[in-house]
Every structure is written in C-alpha cells, then in structure tokens.
Amino acid sequence: MAKLKKKNALRDTVGDKVFYAINAFFLALVALIILYPLYFIIIAAISDPDAVLAGEVVLYPVKLNFDGFVKIMQRSDVWRGYLNTIIYTGLTVILSLIVTIPAGWALSRKTLPGKKLFMIYFIIPMFFGGGLIPFYNVMRSLGLVNTMWAVILPSILSVWNLFMTKTFFESSIPNGLIEAAKIDGAGQFRIFASLVIPLSKAVIAVMALYYAVGQWNSYFNAMIFLQDETMYPLQLVLKEILIASESTVGGSGETILQQYRLANQIKYVSVIVSSLPVLCLYPFVQKYFAQGVMIGSLKE
Amino acid sequence: MEANSANKTLVSRTKDPLASTRRLRKFKENAPFLLMIFPAVLVVFLFNYLPIYGVLIAFQDFMPGDKILSSSTIWVGFENFKRFFSDPQFWPLMKNTFLICIYGFIIGFPLPIIISLMLNALKGKKTAKFLQTIFTAPHFISLVVLVGMLTLFFGRYGLVNNIVAHAGGERYSYFLETSAFRPLYILSSNWQDFGWSAVIYIAALSNVDPQQHEAAILDGATRFQRVIHVDLPAIMPMISVMLIMSIGGLMGVGYEKALLMQTDGNLAVSELVSTYVYKRGLTGVPDQAYATAIGLFNSIINVVLLVIANTTSKRFSENSLW
Fold this sequence. Notes:
The complex is a heterodimer of chains A (300) and B (322).
Chain A: H1 2-11, H2 14-45, H3 49-53, H4 67-74, H5 76-108, H6 115-127, H7 132-141, H8 149-152, H9 159-172, H10 175-183, H11 188-196, H12 201-217, H13 220-225, H14 234-248, H15 253-297
Chain B: H1 2-13, H2 19-54, H3 79-85, H4 90-108, H5 110-120, H6 125-136, H7 143-154, H8 159-166, H9 178-205, H10 210-218, H11 223-248, H12 256-261, H13 267-270, H14 273-282, H15 288-316
C-alpha cells in the first residue's frame, strides 16, 4: 500500500500538483466560510456590546464581558424551555424507537404477510400529504391541541427513517442466523428481542440521534399547537429572543440603539447556549450520522 | 431454498389437502410481524392518512368545527380553487414560490456534488474526513437559530452593518428589503446544508473501484481528468435520483424558514404558497376550506412534477425512482 502511494506520488505531474493545490485552497476557503460565522458568534458573545456595535469585533474578542451569560442565567423562560425540550426530546426518542425499530424489522422480512401492501401504505405519504390545515384539524379532533403530545406524537415516526431501518436490517442481519434460531425453536418475538436488537446498535443509535435532533430543533408544531407559554420548548422561546425584535423594536434613534445593544448580546449568548448540546455531541456521533445516510443510500 | 419453492408450486398444483393448514401454520409463525408493524401503521394512519381524508374540506363550504362528512355538509365543487385562481395573490405566490425554489435548486443542486468531488480528490484522507465533519456541522443548527444568526449578521445592527458604519457608510436593513430576501434565504440554506447533502455522494464515491483510477493513470489521465471521467460517472445514478427528487419538490418549499424570515418590508417576495396557507388557514379569521384547497393545489403540482421527472428520466436513462 505504501509502495503504491509512493509510485503515485512520483507520477504527479506539474499539472496535477497545481490541481491539488487549487483544490485544497478552495476547500480551505469553504471551511472558513462555514467556521467564521460560528466563531464570530462566540467572540461577539464574550465581547463588550458597545465594541460589537461599533464594528470593532471582527477577528478576536474585545474587552471581555460575560454579562450576557449572567442575563441568560436569570431568564426563567429559557430554562423552562430547556427543560421542556429535554422532556419532549426524551419522550420522542423513546417512542420513536419503539415504533420504528420493530416496524423496520417486520418490513425487512420477506415473510411479512401482506408485505407489498404495507410498502405501498408507507410510500404514499412520502409523496403526498393532506397539508397543514387537515393535519391541524386531525390534531384538534384527537384532543391533542395544547398538550405536549401534539409536539411529540407526530414526530415519532418518519417514513424515511423507517425505510432506512428496513434497509439496514436487510443488509446487515445474516439470514442464516435467523434460520438457525428458528430451528432451535425460537419464536419471532424471541428472535427479535434477543438476536436482532443486540446486532442493531448502530441503526438504533442513528435513529435515536435523528429523532432527537429533529425534535430538539423544531418549533413549528409547538407554535401552532401550544398556547400555554409554560409548555414552550426552547426553540419557541429562542424565536421570541432572536427574531421577534428585528421588526418590532420601535422608538427614536438613540433608544433603538440602546435596545439593540442589550438585545444583541443576549442573542449571541442564546445561540451558544441553545446549540451547545447538539454541537458538542456532534463530533462524537458524526460517524453514526454519516453511517445513517449510507444505510439509506443502499437502496435495493 | 430452490427445492422448497419447487415443493411449494407442486403443493399448490396438486391441491394438497394439507395446503390450507400449512398456510395457516405459516401465517401463525409470521403473525408476530403484524404486531411489530402495527404501531407504525397506526401512527401513519393518524398523522398522514387522516389528514389526506381531511382534504375533502377543500371542496366544501367548511366552518371550523364542522364534521367532514355529515348530512349538513355543503359541497361547493371547485369553488375554492376558482377563488384562488382569481385571488390577486395567486400570481405573486406562484412566482415567489417558484423563484425561490429554482434559484435554490440552481445553486443548491450542483454545490454538494462539486464539494464531494473536491473532497474525494483531496490527497490526505484524514484531512478530507476532518473537513467533512466541519462541513456537516451547520446541518444541526436549528432554523430558529439560523435565522437568528442571519439577523445578527445582516440585521440593521448586525456585523455587516456595524463594519459598514465603522467605515463611515450607511446602515442598510437587509431584512426590510425585498431584494435581499431571496439571496439571504438561499445562501443561508446552502451554508447550512451543502455538507449534509454531499455525504450521500461521498459515500457513493468511496465505492469507486481503485483499479479504474489505476487504469486511467496508465492511460496518462491527469487527476482532474480522472475526476471528470472516473469519479463523476460513478455518482451519476445517484445524481439522477436526487435530480428527480428535487424536481418533485420544485414547488414544495416549506413554511418553517420563510415564516421566520418574513418582515413587513419583504412580504412582497417572502410570501410563499405554504406561508399563505398557514396564514389563511390558522391565523386571523381562518378560512380553512380555502387554505386547504390552496395546499392541495400545490401538492398536486408537486406530484405531477415528480411523475414527469421520473418518466423523463426513465425514458432517457435507466435511472428512476420506480
């Protein structure tokens, strides 16, 4: 392998070298475009708000200032939102795994009675839906409006994820193993619980992460179904902090500036505080996410 | 396995008296699968199929709280659709929705393909993995935070304006201007998702047979030529599938992000079919039948586009979704 590499290296023409250099340069540029906004949020959050507003904070923090963090700590709505989101996300993950994993296993079996019909049943919603208003009306007639279940239940099954799970089972559980267990007299439930589940940690992890991130980041269902502010998830609280003020702040020049000075610092900090759990977790679970996409791409 | 199936045809042909008991036993053995799939069937029924049934109100004179089918239902045929076609908002909505999708597609479709080819052509595999980790990270930022970040960068007192003001220029409210909405929307979407969309191509590229590259090198191909003649053809089937899907979604832009970015100033270009459905159906004095008709019209356009794209692709290549 090493020898092969060396041979290739020797063969690099000047043209190839230029190509590699240009390629690396542009990729580095793209990385910068991705990273700079994230970096700026961090330095702006710990800089003096006046310096930020004066346009002095561009490459490094100016006059370290942690007031924003103190102010966020004092906001009970943020922490309540945090707690709500943790509860909603936890329940969503548990329920979604209970729904998705066994169904994915059943769908992956050739002997599932009526398999073709089930496939069509799950494919149709991928391409056609009733739309927002009928969905809202269904939720209302189910009595879910203004309960946390309105946020949780519609998110516990994504048909995409179901098919991804099915593909995983089809491609990575050896058939011989299942046949052997059957000969040993194990029933279908037994096979699923004590043979399939232990072999499926990767897909279970991927699904848990997909559903968790989806719920953690969503705001729309909460916005239309929850009226009680104490039930708001973090994203809805953030929406008030981050976005509402852009168009609603009024008053004369000086007071506007003052309001922005205070509001913006809170904004920088709240972006960090809310994205931290996901972004900290992300590098560790990254390989699973990528794996998930690959499982999905192994289509038939 | 083969013997088994041969046996089965024999059984059914000779009308084995035991066939039905055999089938019953087989069903009993596999019945647990039905129990495993049941929760998923139920969830999809409740949240996907019941709303499809609820679409019927698009053809009714419907007041919130009415039953969908009862003796007092007033059917109005295509009246709600006709109303939409003569709504002064009809053409602006169609135009806004189409333009944001087509511009988004023109930038957002090739970008992940180019990035995946570039990453794949990078010399250090470790560096490529590291860059990929960075590129996919923004995918996990929520829409609320993303739009919040946009205001922090492009708002009246955001980074860009602060720098401009610092240099003695005039502050400019990007969020209150019609001309800035589409670029902000599309560029931020791409900033967030190009890396994530590239993962699927990167996975496909990792399966390219190294021998193909070796052969190309022997033929004197440069690295760039190998990208064009070896790597690109290898992901072509994947590109076709993604192309069909994007065409199917060409009028299907959602409301989540646009709603967050809307201001009184940019409404002329930021009002999309989906946001209009939300506003007419769930806010103010709701006109649910009307909003449902608009939504139905839009999703029918999408299904038609998908079918056209799929049929076309099937005719000119062997790639298709079905």
